[in-house]
Structures are given as structure tokens and as C-alpha cells.
């Protein structure tokens, strides 16, 4: 499909379905970026479904603790746990996965909600542009490191775990220049200081969400159909969020006006995260918008997009395999060579 700006704006005035619900008794739910915004609203919904464990994963220990106490007060749920993770630091992601390995518990739902946008180039300690690392590299890294535990959970408990990657309809407007696509190092080029000019950074968030879409599709394509694991990506829509807190004026002023006119509430946006995690229907590798499966963009499903998907997957696995060899082991044991 082809999304226009007008169609996207019009969709903001649709009435959204109520939040999906399920019985999560005995199950473990992990929500990344759970201390505020969409993440916190989603854990409030999950808490009402009686999960055995609800892990709220946050970058800040202090902010996470505040969110944990607030969750207990608002919902009465007492089995929430605070774990820390910083997706702008690969070592933090690896430590999170290590902790889960040692924890020995099941993992039924992983909601990868953390995401950032930056108005200018900022490098992480790992040497990548921050939003590209958080949105497009660390998010896949965590999913691949935790995938074996989720498959194990499925087999031991006869259930079908889900990985939910929080995307954005702005991926429709993400573009990668042809000269970059011709290179063998697309991600490396996109994450470089040379590429991330002030002009490029104005729409770079869209590109990171396009890469996330490709990751979800590529991962699903490499999962054997018999593997009891669902991977999908959801669009929360344009909603009240702290995502734009770092934008400079006057862009921040414009966005504030737009929020007042047409934004969904944070709670409404969180319903999409919950739908991806517990909603009905065949959701494998799908893009979910307003609680419905929606066809991906013409570019993504077209011949050029399919080629780019393969290129990005191969480069991503090479990069992440160097970050943590367990990624290569996951690919070798659980995924096919090609989709």
C-alpha cells in the first residue's frame, strides 16, 4: 500500500477499538522502555491480566523504581519487577540477556518499546548514531538473544510466545538513497557522522523505523513455520509521547500544536502494543495498525525492498554477531539460511 500524509492525518481521527485482553496467569511479560509513556500504559494493561511476572525494563534505576511504585498503587499488581537496560549500550543489552539466562524463567511476551529520535548526530559509546543503534540494532540484538528462551518456553509450556517491535507508520516515508543501497555496508554508512548531516537527521527516525520493519519481516521469514513464535511490529499512531522531548524549537512547538489537535492519548497508543502481544488472528511477521493487520508499503514488499531486506539482514547479523557470538548461534540453531 501507499500511505499519504493526508491519509495518515485522517486516520488520527478514527475511533480506536478497546484494548485487547487475555488471561496471562503464569506467564512472563517483559516490556522495554516501561517507565513512561506508551510503555508504562501498556504495563498497566498487562498488570490487569494477572501475569505470573511482569518485568518493566528501564534505562534509569530511579525512574524505573518510581514507575514500579506507581504501577503497584494504580493497579494493585504486586508481581512487577524492575530490570535495567540501556539500548544505547550494547554491553547493557548483553547483561540484560545474561540476567535472563541466569534467571531461568519462562518468557512469553517481549515488547520492545524503547525508541529515540535525535535532532543531530550523537554517537554512542559503541560508535553508532544513537537512534540507529537503539531503534535498529540494539532492538534486534535483544530479540535474537532472548529468542532461544522464548522457543524453549513454547515447547515446555505448549504456548506461543510473541515478540512485539514497536514501529511507526513513518516508516512509509523513510528512504535510503540509491547510492547507499549499492554499498555492502548500508547500516555502517547510515550510522556514520559523515552521512548524518543536520538535514538527514530531520527525517532519520523514519529510516530507523523502516529498518525495524525489514528486521521483523526478515526474522519471520527465517523462522520455520512450525516454530511456535510470533513476531510482529505495531504502529501506536501519532500520540502524546515523550519521544519528541529532545526536539528543538520551533519544531517542538509545531509538534505540541499537532498533539493538541490530532494526537491519540498515550493510553490509546498503548493499545496497539497490547494487541500485538495478545490480540487474535495470524500475526506472524505482520504490521499492525489500529488493531488490524495492514499490508506493508509498496517499497517494502516490492522487488527492490525484498533485496534490501536481505542485504540489511546479512549486514545486521554480521554486526551483531561481533557484538555477541550468541547471535550467530541463534541464527544457526533456530533460523534458516534464507527466507
Automatic annotation (TrEMBL):
Q: Which organism is it from?
A: Mycena albidolilacea
Q: Specify the superkingdom.
A: Eukaryota
Task: Answer whether the UniProt record assigns the keyword Transit peptide to this protein.
Answer: no
Q: Has keyword Oxidoreductase?
A: yes
Q: Which InterPro entries match?
A: NAD(P)-bd_dom_sf, SDR_fam
The entry's keywords: Oxidoreductase
Q: Which residues cross the membrane?
A: none
What is this protein identified as? NAD(P)-binding protein
Q: Which Pfam families match?
A: adh_short
Coiled coil stretches, renumbered: none
Named from the GO MF annotations, one term is:
oxidoreductase activity
